[in-house]
Amino acid sequence: MKATAKKKATWNGLVNRTPFGSTLDNQLFKDLDELHQRTQIPKSRLFDDAVKLLLKKHAK
Hints:
By secondary structure, the chain is an all-alpha fold. It is 48% helix and 0% strand. It has 2 helices and no strands. It starts with 25 loop residues before the first helix and ends with a helix.
């Protein structure tokens, strides 16, 4: 049987996520927090969706 490769854990034990730091416009941050509170969708998932849309918009 073939051994499967384990993914190496990153910061804080994360395997499938990469931490990063940034800043947001104050109103965008407020709107993001309100969306998170209203939908209970984690902010990290909201960021994933936003980046996917941005990449699609700028795809060649």
